[in-house]
Design goal:
4-stranded antiparallel beta sheet, 7-stranded parallel beta sheet, 2 domains, 9 helices, alpha/beta, 346 residues, binds calcium ion, 17 strands, Rossmann fold
C-alpha cells in the first residue's frame, strides 16, 4: 500500500489500471496497493507531489488488567484531578461530537452511548465499529462514560461519541486508515478528534491531513507516545502528536509526576492523568490502564466541556483556553515533559 499525492489523481488510476484504491477528500490523494515498478514510475512524474509507503501505527497503551465491574459509580482520581465535576454545573459536553480513532468502541456497554461510527480496517468500510480489543472502549469511557449509577463517569458525560475504527484487534493499524478516519471526521462534522495512537515514522500525507482538518475547525488531540527514555535531550514524541496542528498530551501519575515512559519533547502541549486509570472495557467490563493513550482522552473531554459551553469557539480558541487554564508542573513555564501543564476543566 502506498499513499500517492497528485495534482489531479484520476489519470494515475486510469493510466496504471489501479482497481482498488481509497480516494481521500482531506488531501488530494489516493491510497492503493501498487507494484514497485509503478511506484518508481510515479516517483519520477512531475505531476506527483509525493508518494510514500504506508506504515503501521499502534495504540499508546500499556498491557491491560481487565477487572470486573464495580458498581456503584465512582469518580476516579483522574476525573477529580482535571476538576471535571466542578465544571459539570456549567457544561457536560452536550452537542459536541468527538470521533475516537481507535480499535472501535463497545456497542453494548451499559455505561456508554455511542452515536455512530465507521470501521475502516480491512479492504472495505462498513459499520462494524464494535471494539474487539478494549483500548478504544477504555478511551471512550474516559471521555464520556455516562453519569448514572454504575461504573465510572467520563470527563464530558453528555458529549457524543463516534467510533472510528482504524486499529485492529491487536491495536495495530495503518497510516492510510488513520487519514481516512480524519477524512470521515471532517465529512461528518466532528468537533474533536481523539487519537491514542502513534508511530515513529513520518508521513507527509498524515501531516497534511491533520493540518487540513485543523484548518476546517476540528480540534485534534493526540497521545504523545509511551516512547519516553528519561533523557530530556532526546525528543521521543511520536507522530501524529509531533505535528503543529494537534495537541500532544503527556501522562502524569497520582502524584502529578510524569512516568519515564511518557514521551518528552518540545511538542508536548498538555499533561493529563495516564497512570492506573480505571475506565470501561469490552464485554461490559472495566479495566485499569496506563499510557499516554489514557491521558489524551482527558484533554479531549475537557475540550468538549469548553466547546459545549460556547459552541461558537474555534478550535484555536479552545486550544489557547486549555493552555491558559492548565496548572503548571515541573520547571516553571512551558516545558518538554508537561507542556503548559495539567489540563483543567473547572
Ligand atoms: Ca457511569
Ligand atoms: Ca527523551
Ligand atoms: Ca512547567
Amino acid at each position: 500500500m502506498a499513499v500517492v499525492i497528485t495534482k489531479g489523481e484520476s489519470w494515475v488510476i486510469k493510466e496504471h489500471s489501479i482497481a482498488n484504491y481509497t480516494q481521500y477528500k482531506i488531501i488530494n490523494s489516493i491510497s492503493a496497493d501498487i507494484p514497485e515498478s509503478v511506484s518508481e514510475k510515479l516517483k519520477k512524474n512531475p505531476k506527483i507531489k509525493y508518494i510514500e509507503e504506508d506504515a503501521q501505527v499502534q495504540i499508546a497503551g500499556k498491557p491491560s488488567q481487565p477487572q470486573p465491574p464495580q458498581p456503584p459509580q465512582q469518580i476516579t482520581w483522574g476525573i477529580a484531578r482535571v476538576k471535571a465535576p466542578e465544571a459539570w454545573n456549567n457544561s457536560t459536553g452536550k452537542n459536541v461530537k468527538i470521533a475516537v480513532l481507535d480499535t472501535g468502541i463497545s456497542n453494548s456497554h451499559p455505561d456508554l452511548t455511542v452515536s455512530g461510527g465507521i470501521n475502516l480496517v480491512g479492504k472495505s468500510k462498513n459499520n462494524k465499529w464494535n471494539d474487539d480489543n478494549g483500548h478504544g472502549t477504555h478511551v471512550a469511557g474516559i471521555i464520556a462514560a455516562r453519569n448514572n449509577s454504575i461504573g465510572v463517569v467520563g470527563v464530558a458525560p453528555d458529549a457524543q461519541l463516534y467510533a472510528v475504527k482504524v486499529l485492529d484487534a491487536y491495536g495495530s493499524g495503518y497510516i492510510s486508515d488513520v487519514i481516512e478516519g480524519i477524512d470521515w471526521a471532517v465529512q461528518n462534522n466532528m468537533n474533536v478528534v481523539s487519537m491514542s495512537l502513534g508511530t515513529a515514522i513520518y508521513s507527509q500525507a498524515l501531516n497534511d491531513s491533520t493540518a487540513n482538518a485543523y484548518k476546517v475547525g476540528i480540534l485534534l488531540v493526540v497521545a504523545a507516545g509511551n516512547s519516553g527514555d528519561g533523557n530530556l535531550s532526546t525528543d521521543d514524541v511520536l507522530y501524529p502528536a509531533k505535528f503543529d496542528s494537534v495537541i500532544a498530551v503527556s501522562a502524569v501519575d497520582f502524584n502529578n509526576i510524569a512516568p519515564i515512559w511518557s514521551a518528552d519533547g518540545a511538542e508536548i502541549e498538555l499533561a493529563a492523568p495516564g497512570v492506573d486509570i480505571y475506565s470501561t472495557w469490552i464485554n461490559g467490563g472495566y479495566a485499569n490502564e496506563s499510557g499516554t493513550s489514557m491521558a489524551a482522552p482527558f484533554v479531549s473531554g475537557v475540550a468538549a466541556l469548553v466547546k459545549s459551553k460556547n459552541l461558537a469557539m474555534s478550535s484555536q480558541e479552545i486550544r489557547n483556553a486549555l493552555a491558559y487554564s492548565a496548572v503548571d508542573l515541573g520547571v516553571p513555564g512551558r516545558d518538554r515533559i508537561y507542556g503548559f501543564g495539567l489540563v483543567q476543566a473547572g
